[in-house]
Amino acid sequence: MRATIGRYFARFDEGEVIRWAFRGLLIGAVGVLAMDLHDLIKARRPATVSPAGITSPILPPAVDTRDGEGGSATVDPRDQVLVDEDRLRRPISFTLKPGGILAAEGFVDVGAAARFAAEIAVRGEYVRAVLLNSPGGSLDDAIAIARQIRARGLATAVVDGAFCASSCPLMLAGGVTRSVGVKSAVGVHQFYAVGEMPAEPAQAMSDAQATTARISRHLDEMGVDPALWLHALDTPPRALYYLSMDEMRGFGLATDTGPIAAK
């Protein structure tokens, strides 16, 4: 019997076994998230997400990852960030700056990807890097912007003092090189839908699984380890898991801490 099992697993290379193990881990995390959604639905509480689709305050607190077992909480770089909260609450805008830099600042509203495409169509020949300063927003638009960035062969950066959270790291992943300043803040958390009432449990679980699969596939296509998103699945929408520089390098989200990131 043992020999039969050994022959079965010998059919798969080590990389494939690891990929399946990771998929199982993601499915388990989504299941826990769906159970949390079920508890919310039982209470029949209306959603509290603002129409803008961003959390308040702009810089949410760092999630505590200790779970009562000692150890340390996630890093909290908020004191290093210099943000104009009113500016970041406005729809994302794109401003061409000297040196081929396109500054993208504000929350990612529905329609942001179309505006980015229009900007690139007019000024794309001058752009070499996209600087991000955003609390996130629309998942669809963030992924679409990331794909346009990659298709154009552009770099991305989060400079010292800037903020990139929620769906913003998905845009950051689009850069052919990705520069992150040591005095910036990059964070992830669970996605949530804007609406009057939560979905029914079965639909909520289906939606959570589909969203997780989509984000994982996007990160993988961009050359970023999808395991990064496990931190998002563990983190409530009104907190952030702030990624350390070592984590960003390890996951492949940051490939550079060079001059662009230090501007």
TrEMBL record:
Record InterPro entries: ClpP/crotonase-like_dom_sf
Source organism: Nitratireductor arenosus
Organism domain of life: Bacteria
Protein name per its UniProtKB record: Periplasmic protein-like protein
